[in-house]
Structure formats: C-alpha cells, structure tokens
Amino acid sequence: MKGYVFHGPGQAAWEEVPDPSVKDATDAIVRVGAVTICGTDLHIIKGDVPEVRPGTVLGHEAVGEVVEVGGDVRTVRPGDRALVSCISPCGRCRYCREGTYGQCLGGGGWILGHLVDGTQAEYVRVPFADLSLHPLPGALRSEDAVMLADIFPTAYEIGVLNGRVRPGDTVVVVGAGPIGLAAIATARLLSPERIVAVDLAPSRLESATAFGADAVADAREDPGQLVADLTGGLGADVVVEAVGVPETFEMCTRMVRPGGHVANIGVHGAPATLHLEDLWIKNVTITTGLVDTRTTPTLLRMASAGRLPTGRMVTHTFPLERMQEAYDVFAGAADTGALKVVLGGEQREVIPVADA
User: Where's the Enoyl reductase (ER) domain (predicted)?
Assistant: First the structure.
C-alpha cells in the first residue's frame, strides 16, 4: 500500500509502505476512505515534534471501512463504516477511567501519526479499537464525519467546555482558522449572547461570520476596545485562544473580565508571559489541554441531525494519491484560502465558506 511518510524535518513523501496487520487483540485494520490534514502534521514536518521518528506514516484523522479486527474487539466488525478518532484510549488506566483519554497511561492517547503509523495511507492499524473507532450512520457523509475525528471535539472540549460557556455569555475567539471556526460553531450550541471573532485575515473573518460570529475584529485594531464597548467595559466572559503564539495568549488575558475564563486551545512553541501582576486579583481561570474525544459520540449525533456545519469547513478535496498537492494547498492557506482539505471520500465541487 501507499502512505505519507515523514523522513525528517522538511522531508515527507507519498510512497510504498508495508501493509498494516493486527498486532494486539484490541486492534482493528481500517481501509481509509477519507482523511484530512491537521496543523499538527505541518508542525511535525517542520521538526517541531521530535517524538515522531523518521519512517512514520503521518495523520490522526480518518473515516473508513473496518476490514479486520483482533479477538478482543467487540464494538465494531468487518464491513462497518467508522470514524477513526485522533485519540486512542486504553480504557483501563486512571486517566481513561476518568474520561481524560488524551492523558492515557496505558499505551494510548495521541499515538496515531505520532508514536505509531497514522491514517494518511490506504490502510491503518487502529489500536484500542473499541474506544478509538465510532460506527457511523449511513446518512453522514465521510467528508463531514472526518471533521469529528479531531477538530470539532478539540474546539468543543478544550475551548467551549473548558471555558464554561453559558447562555448569555460574551465569547471571544482569537484565531479564525479551522479550530477557531469550530469553537464558534460549537459555542453557539450553548446560546451565548454574542460571539466575537478576532483574526488578521479578512477572508477568515468573513468565514467566522459564516460560522456564526456576531461581530469580528482585526487583531491589529485593538479588539479589546470593541469587546469593552460591547460589554459596557466589563470584558468577555470567555476568551478562547486558537492560534498558539505569545501575542494572542496575552491578548486573551487582557480581554477577559474579572471572574472570566481563558481557554487555550492553540499549540504553543514559544513561552508566553503570564501577567500575574494584573491577573492575580481578578479571579481569572486559565485552562489548557489536549482533546480527550469523550464528546465525539454526542457530536456525531449532532452532525447527523444537521446541527453542526462540518461540511462548510471543507474547502478543497483531492484523491488520496494527491497527498503532496493537498499538503501544499493546506500549508499555503494564506494564498489558497484553505480551511480543511479532505482526501478520498466523494469528490465534489466545494462551495466557498462565505457563500455556504
């Protein structure tokens, strides 16, 4: 079979790799039908994730058909169409028993495309299949379902739920890339009074409006003043950081109200200053986290009922063998306008987000 293989910083290729096989009784083998690319994959190729060894097939999100299962697998069987989760929980360790699957101590957690071969291939071995695979209803398109492997659970759990969004809140989302847009969409499920999106790119602010933001602000034009004006000087109840650079994190801490929440989703590669000299007196809660995917079943039901705009996230589709081209389009989002790219699935004309 073929897969997209990491060979070291700046080096990756779509090439022949060995077919996966069942190694443990809890494994399943899935024929990949649709797969997407994550910003984390770009970080790996840049060399920012040193745990990924050269020779590893990348990718941690997919939809496909189960073709083989180990002897201990009970929840799926060959022929089932399933979502491959980005997190593989062992189900037995302390963290898994608490539902904190991302911190699994039993050989799971984020392992696909990280510590073991991942989903950007024709077939993938999925460890801990009973908790890592989610059977899919036939009515849910593969391109829509694959958005629930990582991006929507991450935005919902680490942004919306950690931020404790409540009805009537003012929510600010800093960063209107795919994660920020998913945070906007899932925050709307909890009926905030308003959602404000902050970004540098006009096209992404336009997308934020399409995903449900009530107001948008250019990050260079003092968005804190807009938030103050909208809240009578109080500040935002919840601020979601969805970029991952020091400047945006510090901006979030300036916009949150006393007693409010800053929910950090962004992956940070450099230290950020925590201004405790200002924050210590304000009862501010700051949360971080890796997605656990415990909400994936709920989000799948919401998507099946048409309550989540998963399809709007997909801006480009490719056949699986055009993986390198898809990476180039995704990495060049500033020029291509890419949000999420999907390989495989049903090839179709994609409607621009702003017109959806």
Answer: 8-343
Q: Mark which of 269, 287, 305 sits at the end of a domain.
A: 287
Task: Compute the 3-state secondary structure of the chain and give helix, strand, coil in percent, each to the nearest 5.
Answer: 30, 25, 45
Helix (H, G, I), strand (E, B) or coil at 327: helix
- Exposure string (b/e) for 243-274, b if CB count within 10 Å is 16 or more? bbbeebbebbbebbbeebbbbbbbeeeeebee
The answer, yes or no, to whether residue 297 has pLDDT greater than 80, is yes
What CATH number should be reported for the domain holding residue 262? 3.40.50.720
pTM, entire model: 0.94
Structurally, the chain folds into a number of domains equal to 2
d(CA 185, CA 179): 10
Domain co-membership, 171 together with 60 = no
Position 147, amino acid: M
CA 62 to chain centre: 12
Structural domain boundaries enclosing 193? 153-287
pLDDT for 129-147, tens place per residue?
A: 999 999 998 889 999 999 9
pLDDT digits (tens, 9 = 90+) for 188-202: 999 999 999 999 999
Query: Which alpha helices (DSSP H) does the chain contain, by range?
Result: 39-46, 94-97, 129-132, 142-145, 151-154, 178-187, 202-210, 223-230, 246-255, 276-279, 296-304, 323-331, 333-336
Instruction: Find the DSSP H helices in 231-354.
Output: 246-255, 276-279, 296-304, 323-331, 333-336
Tell me the backbone φ, ψ of residue 276, rounded to 5 degrees. -65, -20
Domain end marker among 265, 287, 309: 287
Residues 89 and 128 sit within 8 Å (Cβ to Cβ): yes
